[in-house]
Write a structure and sequence with these properties.
The complex is a heterodimer. By secondary structure, chain A is mostly helical. Helix content of chain A is 83%, strand content 0%. Chain A has helices at 2-8, 14-23, 29-56, 66-69, 72-98, 101-131, 140-173, 177-210. Chain B contains 5 helices and no strands. The model of chain B is unreliable at 1-20 and 123-128 (pLDDT under 50). The chains are: A mainly alpha, B mainly alpha. Chains A and B meet through helix 3, helix 5 and helix 8 of A and helix 2, helix 3 and helix 4 of B.
Chain lengths: 211, 129
């Protein structure tokens, strides 16, 4: 698509207008695309962790197997929490676009609480596994499991901190252009984490139970 | 996507950044589809309606890919117009690298494992004259 535009450029004077319009984001465009590229590079980190888990997923070293240690009802609860938090953030964005400060803050707070619940359930699960002796150093499978799921949980934790920061920012300065841009980046981050979680519950937990 | 264009601030939309500009309809549609696409694989694994684990595994993977696409369109609002198509290009590029990394690693290591198994080595040795 870009090539076509460049080829037509000398003959087509509107090319310059289109370019100018593209640069007229002022505050939004470049940052949003840059943040999107960051998210894609983050996806590659998760790709490496998923690949590691895939390779080591049957290296039990005589230790526990997924079927013995995973509790699917707990995973289903966490999946539901994260999915609902995705849509509550979406409602926050809709409130932001309408310029409702209170509504935006309320939905952000609900999202942060759901995120905290997710991390809480995950820490409970980790604690239970470690108490059962299924520690990260028990086998290659468990090392890869804790690294992959733990990295995702760490991302969610950072997302919660970011939401809290944005609550303060919106409270102090309102829905100014900069805050709208930040909230849009955070929105991409939060939805991206939900996408990664789809991979985690499908490939780690559900396929693990079938093995 | 048509549903992205409803209910928007026209000034913001004129800037052409497509991120985060979903309508309530697109979020609700994404949520409904995701709920169904999550519930089915969990049910498939927990209730085991399909006897073969292999077929269930393929179904789980298909539902995961579908749900990732739903999230990408309804929640992340990736489309061909956003940022002059660059979000879409970056997304597709990442998907390709992701697939190569994961599938390639598992493919190579599976063959390495099955060729280097101690049991297999002795098997080959005993067949030697």
């Amino acid at each position: 698509m870009a090539t076509t535009t460049h080829d037509q450029a000398p003959a087509d004077p509107t090319f310059f207008l289109v370019e100018q319009d593209d640069h007229d984001h002022g505050t939004g465009g470049g940052t949003l695309l840059g943040f999107w590229i960051y998210l894609m590079s983050d996806a590659l980190i998760f790709a490496a962790l998923f690949a590691t888990f895939g390779v080591l997923s049957t290296s039990y070293a005589g230790g526990p197997t997924p079927r013995e240690i995973f509790e699917l009802p707990l995973v289903a609860l966490n999946t539901a929490i994260l999915l609902v938090s995705s849509i509550t953030y979406g409602f926050g964005m809709l409130a932001m676009e309408k310029g409702h400060v209170r509504g935006t803050q309320a939905w952000l707070l609900v999202t942060a609480l759901l995120g905290a619940a997710f991390v809480g359930v995950e820490l409970y699960e980790f604690g239970k596994l470690i108490a059962e002796g299924a520690t990260p150093q028990r086998s290659g499978f468990l090392s890869a499991f804790f690294t992959l799921v733990g990295t995702h949980g760490l991302h969610v934790t950072v997302g919660i901190v970011w939401i809290l920061v944005m609550l303060v920012q919106v409270g102090q300065r309102g829905l100014i252009v900069e805050n709208k841009r930040r909230l849009t980046c955070l929105s991409m981050f939060w939805h991206f984490l939900d996408v990664v979680w789809i991979g985690v519950f499908s490939f780690v937990y559900l396929l693990g139970m079938l093995r | 996507m048509k549903w992205n264009d409803g209910n928007l601030d026209p000034v913001l939309h004129a800037h052409g950044d497509a991120h985060g500009h979903g309508s309530k309809k697109s979020y609700l549609l994404g949520f409904a589809l995701s709920s169904v696409l999550t519930a089915i694989p969990f049910w498939l694994v927990m209730a085991q309606p399909i006897a073969s684990p292999g077929v269930t595994a393929i179904a789980v993977i298909v539902f995961a890919v579908l749900q990732i696409l739903v999230h990408t369109i309804c929640f992340l609002h990736v489309n061909t117009q956003g940022e002059g198509g660059w979000t879409m290009i970056a997304y597709v590029f990442t998907a390709v690298i992701l697939f190569i990394t994961i599938a390639g690693s598992m493919w190579i290591m599976y063959h390495l494992n099955s060729n280097m198994m101690p049991g297999m080595m002795t098997g080959q040795m005993s067949e030697m004259p």
